[in-house]
């Protein structure tokens, strides 16, 4: 029963997919991060399936070239409700303050939206739009896997990483999580994604995605500890968004190279 409740909590917290109501107790939250990547699997499957249809219509001249790019840019936000983009914006605002650690943490808690948050979100969405405009169906399997890996590593960082604060939702999940279960599920998700992508798209995109994940994750952990003193929920959301955009950049570049 705890596993089912953890599944429901993961989807209730990190997606807009309707779920039954359950009580958020420490036992029921123990395995939430084990199911968090499944939210990415749903978002990835929707992106892959929708992308195949939209790219097919675009290439047949039945859709404006911009329409698939716009839809694929906003689709993950529709699935998640923008919770991770909110963390990306808050973190961008805090980092661009160039203040001391305490000031940056205070900005993360501030409900107001700063100018740097708006500019960072605009740049992010415009770059995503540009990439999806240049992408084709070869990018879709890799992005589906990236959406799983982003949540796998984001949840892992919150669970086993040093917390920047003793309060907040990330601290609650960290205190409730079964670390061993999260480590095991992380290994499973990583292995499944890499093997799956190698079979479907080939070894090169699988290696590119794995390298990108490692590079962005290492930078994220270093930045979080150096600038904020540890991990917060907003920082975990920042990583998720940055990794997915970086993965889209790398996979689109690889796809474009194949055309020449």
TrEMBL record:
<keyword id="KW-0812">Transmembrane</keyword>
<keyword id="KW-0472">Membrane</keyword>
<comment type="similarity">
    <text>Belongs to the CobS family.</text>
</comment>
<dbReference type="GO" id="GO:0008818">
    <property type="term" value="F:cobalamin 5'-phosphate synthase activity"/>
</dbReference>
<dbReference type="Pfam" id="PF02654">
    <property type="entry name" value="CobS"/>
</dbReference>
<feature type="transmembrane region" description="Helical">
    <location>
        <begin position="65"/>
        <end position="85"/>
    </location>
</feature>
<dbReference type="GO" id="GO:0009236">
    <property type="term" value="P:cobalamin biosynthetic process"/>
</dbReference>
<comment type="function">
    <text>Joins adenosylcobinamide-GDP and alpha-ribazole to generate adenosylcobalamin (Ado-cobalamin). Also synthesizes adenosylcobalamin 5'-phosphate from adenosylcobinamide-GDP and alpha-ribazole 5'-phosphate.</text>
</comment>
<protein>
    <recommendedName>
        <fullName>Adenosylcobinamide-GDP ribazoletransferase</fullName>
        <ecNumber>2.7.8.26</ecNumber>
    </recommendedName>
</protein>
<keyword id="KW-0808">Transferase</keyword>
<dbReference type="GO" id="GO:0051073">
    <property type="term" value="F:adenosylcobinamide-GDP ribazoletransferase activity"/>
</dbReference>
<feature type="transmembrane region" description="Helical">
    <location>
        <begin position="140"/>
        <end position="161"/>
    </location>
</feature>
<dbReference type="GO" id="GO:0005886">
    <property type="term" value="C:plasma membrane"/>
</dbReference>
<keyword id="KW-0460">Magnesium</keyword>
<comment type="pathway">
    <text>Cofactor biosynthesis; adenosylcobalamin biosynthesis; adenosylcobalamin from cob(II)yrinate a,c-diamide: step 7/7.</text>
</comment>
<feature type="transmembrane region" description="Helical">
    <location>
        <begin position="182"/>
        <end position="215"/>
    </location>
</feature>
<keyword id="KW-1003">Cell membrane</keyword>
<keyword id="KW-0169">Cobalamin biosynthesis</keyword>
<dbReference type="InterPro" id="IPR003805">
    <property type="entry name" value="CobS"/>
</dbReference>
<feature type="transmembrane region" description="Helical">
    <location>
        <begin position="235"/>
        <end position="258"/>
    </location>
</feature>
<keyword id="KW-1133">Transmembrane helix</keyword>
<feature type="transmembrane region" description="Helical">
    <location>
        <begin position="113"/>
        <end position="134"/>
    </location>
</feature>
